[in-house]
Amino acid sequence: MKKPVTYLGDAFFHVITVFSIITFIWIVITPAKYFIAGEVQRLFENKGELRAKNKYNDLLAKHNITRENYKPSIIIRKKTRELSVYANSYEIASYTIGLGRNSSGKKQKKDDLRTPEGNYYICRKDYNHKFHLFLQINYPSPEDASRATVNHIITTNDEISINQAVQNGNPPPSETELGGNIGIHGFGSECSWTIDGSISMNNIDVEDIFWNIDVGTEVLIMP
User: Fold this and answer.
1) Phi and psi dihedrals of 109, rounded to 5?
2) Cα(15)–Cα(121) distance, integer angstroms
3) What is the pLDDT of residues 46-102, one digit of tens each?
């Protein structure tokens, strides 16, 4: 007959084994795998800069596009959760994305969990963002502000502040009822999970965008 200590040892071993298997499965089938892969990658290169630039050099070469005449734009299709990068009328690359938790409809207020729709541009890039890398769009745009003023969501002074920021080449203020500081960032695209309505991508994919897209690049967000 086994001693109690032996039973306890066997039980502990089985518990650890089951826990390890569950942890492994959880990592494989959830966004954690992209987080872990991204963090490992950061140990060896500058957040994917060299890899991303080399990848796009190859993609551009397929269409006889050089860096000198490379004029990118981004189209985001909310219905299909897809972000496409275009250059000189060619689709260069396409990526799966996540959206705001309330993924249907145009963003009206800061707390509605929706992703904006309309014409925007990249107004700021953040290398040290909490979600890996971040490309901010100029939401709320003057069009968003005008609509919100008519609907009494923001004040006329708020609209003036938003318009002045755009005219001065600055990111729009985020303190109004429209919210702000919305953009494209990492940490996974398996589902629509962002609270502010930002567009989420897998870390390796947002690296492609970050290192090959400049401030001023046009972004069209479609329903």
Assistant:
1) -140, 165
2) 52
3) 899 999 999 999 999 999 999 999 999 999 999 999 999 999 989 999 999 999 999
pLDDT value at position 161? Answer: 97
Residue given tokens 């702000």 in the structure block: 180
pLDDT grade for 110, boundaries at 50, 70 and 90 = very high
Provide the residue type at 117 as one letter. E
AA letter at 40: V
Across 140-179, b (16+ Cβ under 10 Å) vs e yields bbeebbebbbeeebbeeebbebbeebbeeeebbbeebebb
From 202, 204, 153, 206, select the one nearest 179 (Cα to Cα).
Answer: 153
CB 185 within 8 A of CB 198: yes
* 193 in Cβ contact with 94 (< 8 Å): no
What pTM does this model have? 0.80
Backbone angles phi, psi at 180, to 5 degrees: 165, -165
Question: DSSP labels for the chain?
Answer: ---HHHHHHHHHHHHHHHHHHHHHHHHHHSTHHHHHHHHHHHTTSSTTHHHHHHHHHHHHHTTT--GGG--EEEEEETTTTEEEEEETTEEEEEEE-B-BSS-SS---STTS-PPP-EEEEEEEEEEEETTEEEEEE-PSPHHHHHHHHHTTSS-HHHHHHHHHHHHTT-PPPS-STT----EEE-S--SS--BSS--EE--HHHHHHHHHH--TT-EEEEE-
